[in-house]
Give the backbone structure.
Amino acid sequence: MSPKRATNTAPTPHEVGQALVVASRALVGIAARSLAAIEGELTLPQYRALVWLAERGPSNVGALADAVGIHPSTATRLCDRLVHKRLIRRSNPPGDRREVVLTLAPAGEAIIAQVTRMRHAEIDRLVAGLDATARAEIIRALGRFADAAGELPDDAWQLGWS
Amino acid sequence: MSPKRATNTAPTPHEVGQALVVASRALVGIAARSLAAIEGELTLPQYRALVWLAERGPSNVGALADAVGIHPSTATRLCDRLVHKRLIRRSNPPGDRREVVLTLAPAGEAIIAQVTRMRHAEIDRLVAGLDATARAEIIRALGRFADAAGELPDDAWQLGWS
DNA sequence: CAAAAAGGGTGTAGGACTGCAACTATGACG
DNA sequence: CGTCATAGTTGCAGTCCTACACCCTTTTTG
């Protein structure tokens, strides 16, 4: 995990990858914990659906099924449960009367916000232990990485992790 | 997502948190994609069990149930399926004849390796697009972050993400 | 206007996870 | 040796995800 290299040479892509894989474990662990807090009330597909609605806004059933990667019929029944839990709302929009528009209900938004807040809080707790130099470095470094990551086809939502 | 701040001042912990949350999305997305590749053959709890066995080595049913956070009876039947898929092995160790020792089978190790490899490959692909300075910065910055994260109680495995 | 396409919902069926309760076998302790 | 604890399994019951096939309604299109 700790690549031994001459500190005066530029790190190879693979070495940087090593560092990112390690950080990935930490960050994914944090994400997992934030999610574990709502486990029991919400299944993973249900959470994925909420995240997607929070990101992309109101949507019809087909688009959601496509985004979450499930069969339309599965999406219908998944929405049944989310509606029953009052986390989303179904409505019949004007225009195309075949469509059903799914909207995140206040309770649904609250859950998403809670998970995000927990994640943020935990990360902030870690960052608080770093000095100013380290903080500045992280900001610059991760900014560049996020930019690079952002250039990829955005199917990172495949599993609904935010 | 891009906190506007004076570039000459030290970033606040919260600003660093912002950057990490953004990077977190990217990294978690990568982890999710690596996992999605084996979806269909393996459920999430099954994957979590494999990861745990890969990390901690051979284990009995109770410890695995505890680690993955499921009921012992659930663990028994989860193991039934993993054994049937030839991803793990059950054996009766000498000594305590009540215990059952679970071992990762070669096919199970292969799956873990495949997921890890995919994740690494995708991260490396991103890093390849960065220049030497950025790489060096990421190495330093993430090293410090990982150190800070490592000081936390290690329950990041709660959901079995590696 | 009739046929095809699109958007969703139902019926049906199966697999997986979940926990509780009861049971077997084994080990530890007095 | 008898009792209690431990490790694991099995029976049972419920929820959820999953897909396929089929149906209804609405819209588009020739």
